[in-house]
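Example 3.2
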Amino acid sequence: MKHNHNHDNAHSAGPQLMPVRFEFTHPTATTICVAGTFNQLKLEAKTLHSTGGGRWWKETALVPGTYEYCLVVDGQWMPDPQARETVPNPFGGRNSVLKVAGLPEASFPAAADKAVSQRTSK
């Protein structure tokens, strides 16, 4: 068992990862990924899991900050319809904006009016 010898309980110098959960509903999708500036737009890095009934989810951890992302539904890139903010992308489309707060409670769905990290589509 390792002991914390840092008795002043200061945080480590590295960036703190915050939990983030993506959710999306699409009744006919067979594959959904999330591609963004947090994963260098690599689709295979963030494949959502199906829970049946067209519901999909992915949990991950990100360093606090602002990110752009798109959902990729069966190969079709699209902004998250529930994102509060979008920005133009270089391809003539829109990217969703994800703001990850530095406090864990601000990164959960219950904090919907704060920097939101969960997006849900119906």
